[in-house]
Amino acid sequence: MDAPITSRTYRKLVLCTGRGGISWCCIDTLNHRILQKGTAAFEKNVAAERELSDFFQQNQDIPEVVDEVQVLHSNAYNTFVPDALFDENYIGSFLQYNIKVFESDVYASDALASHGMHNVYVPLMNINNYLIDRFGSFEYRHSASVLVTKLLENSRNIDEKQAFVLLQDDHYEIVAVRGQKLLLYNCFDYHTAEDFLYHLLFTMEQLFLNPETAKVQLLGKVDEDHPAYLLAYNYIRNISFHEPEALMEKYGVSRKEALENFIIYNA
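^ that's the sequence the OP posted. Answer follows.
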């Protein structure tokens, strides 16, 4: 049941956890403003619950009384499945060819109803359990569900193959689309610009995307001085930065901020 209008805060908290850290924002849903945002890295080989406890201790200004909390799991334990093949009773079987699965794993799926598919993934339940104790009930999804949905929406009426690349500190995600059809989603770790370029060009080759003509758009933590962009610019003629006009207009933020926070702002 929705809260009475007099008790609403008109605030929404989005937390994106995994892949070595956490990013978050608090949104004023009434006036469409970003009230707070931030990121924090997690140490390797330290329990997620301890990292989250330390994070909230160091960020005590993060509001706990909000109308909505959304948790996004950012990990490589996912795959997109067409609705025609999806069966909730065998949800774990869709992942067994992509990752090593265990009997103790919990599986979840996000329905991308408008695009005829589900994103099947392994949510990190230790993170969920910690956040339940802190916030009570909340919705959770996989971060790729947000990313793919928004890029498919942006590709409406564009009848050519496009590739989008979301860069983060230690990994990047490739989304290839045509019109509103998903051609490919994949995630790669990388340490150097050469790593980035190798996997990107290989993926483009498999999709018959010609580096001389295909459009590749970058988003995430990337700008004109990023080593990955500077190297790729020499090999891909039509590489550019995605223009997130809708986010820029909605929240009154710069292109750089909208690109860096593309997922959490669209959650």
